[in-house]
Amino acid sequence: MEQLTQQIASGLANGAIYASLALALVMIFVSTDHINFAQGEMAMFSAYLCWQVMQWGLNFWIALPLVALGSFLAGVAIQRMILQPLHNAPVLSVVVVFIGLLTIFHSLAGGIWSFTIKEFPSPFPKVAFAGSGYLGSHQVGMILVTLLLLFGLYAFFRFTPLGLAMRAAAQNPGSARLVGVRVDWMLALGWGLAAVVGAVAGTMVAPVVYLEPNMMASILLYGFAGALVGGISSPGGAVAGGFIVGVLENLIAYFGNLLEKTSGIYVIGNGEKLSVALVIVIIVLTLKPDGLFGQVSIKRV
Amino acid sequence: MAKLLEVSGLKAYYGSTQALFDVNLALDQGGVITLLGANGAGKSTTLRAICGMVRTGGSIRLDGQPIGGKATEDIVRLGVGHVPEGRGTFARLTVDENLRVATHARRDKTAVERDRDMVLEYFPILKERLTQQAGTLSGGEQQMLAISRALMLGPRLMLLDEPSFGLAPLIVQEIFRIMRRINSEARVSMLLVEQNAALALDLADHAYVLETGRVVLSGEAAVVKSDAAIRKSYLGY
Asked: Is-contact A30 A193, C-beta < 8 A?
């Protein structure tokens, strides 16, 4: 029982990272209908930048805002310089650009920092949490930072004029222009914010998976799965989906191990949890194509 | 009097298809003009051209300043409130958010407050619907919201694309009554596109009849209205 609780708790911790990445994907998707395949590599690159700034002697909590700012500007620049000129291009051209960005960031990181695995120290102090032993201090910190980021974004979109303008631009670009919203800049801003979310996710997960150019590959896959399960059109759904996938993968491994221990038959274990998680995603999507929380917009004509 | 809007030799293109041919229009400060004509005559295209939503040629001047070739959002920020065909409300935003999004670029906080009070006084039903998703409103309420949202821009000029479309006669009368007040009280000039010629000619002081992208006739609204031959051949009533 205790082990089960622990598995769920650490599933939530991983889920926080998947949720962030899922949110980054959704932020770009709702306004452009594109899935940014390079989102994971951008996050990885941000994590390397953070590591580099820390190597220069700065504290993590100073390095992170700097890197977040840099990632924001890079995200805006990528949209303005690379994707804006392609806004009328067929979707496959855009996909090729995303794959190009992915490989560029990948080889840049490898070229600058080499492909050998680096350790990324946890920024959180090692303290034992009130008798729980369920979660390490880094996992707790990771959850808190992610939730803080998610609530911050929620408040931004919900309560600020700029957030409102961004939502309007994503929903109906034509009408948004007619109320004076600079739609192109809103898209760029969306890219910038997605890059920031990715940067936070990357630096949070780096102490867990270690720093290397491939670190985000499976995490992006989980984030993508989370976004689809929750509903790729719904930011809140994507976040929930990220957490669901995180818990699910741990439960699969847990029950697989349990089954092996009690009956001696090996069905699934750690090795298969990604495949099983993705099978569940496919089942969910077959039954509910818009995802569990996908927005069904109410329309009366 | 100075012309608020002066359009001359306006051409518009959808891809390589030309939709407008040398359209000339003039709107006085505080005036109302209406564009009449059959489906596909180019009425909506004229409004879209003024707002920079299609590729254009010729000259468009707002208060003497050329606005042709500017981006839609920049033209809007100069004080042009376009109420588009099909209303274009943000279905998944609340009524309140629909109104607020139009003010996101405005810095004159007190004027924004005043405009908000004004539109809620014009359309009190919206006050009861503020927290509702715009997509759940009735057609008439959505049209009221679309007009209100354009008013929240604090416009000098409103472009209205068939505000009567698909609405019950009583609702249409109500909306036109308010539009008359907006023109006389808030001093907003209007360029009105309508299928319902009788209604439009009541509100407007000048009318233009479009046919296949050309102005085939123009004159004072009262004259156009009383001319049986014009009514029969162009306006179909």
From this structure: no
Helix (H) or strand (E) holding B182: helix B169-185
State pLDDT tens for residues B116-166. 999 999 999 999 999 999 999 999 999 999 999 999 999 999 999 999 999
For a pLDDT cut of 70, what percent of chain B falls above it?
A: 99
ipTM above 0.95, yes or no: no
Angle at CA of residue A90, ends A38 and B73, nearest 5°:
90
User: How many interface pairs between A and B have CB atoms less than 8 angstroms apart?
Assistant: 84
Q: Which residues, given as ranges, of chain A have pLDDT below 50?
A: 131, 297, 299, 301
The architecture (CATH level 2) of B3-235 comes to 3-Layer(aba) Sandwich (3.40)
The Cα A280–Cα A274 span in angstroms is 10
Q: Which residue of A lies nearest to B166 if distances are taken between CA atoms?
A: A301
Q: Given this model, what pLDDT does residue A40 score?
A: 95
Task: Tell me if B76 and A183 make a contact (CB, 8 A cut-off).
Answer: no
Name the residue among B88, B104, B139 with its Cβ closest to that of A165: B104
Domain spans of chain A, in order of start = 2-122+132-216
Nearest CA in chain A to B80: A178
Q: Specify the pTM.
A: 0.89
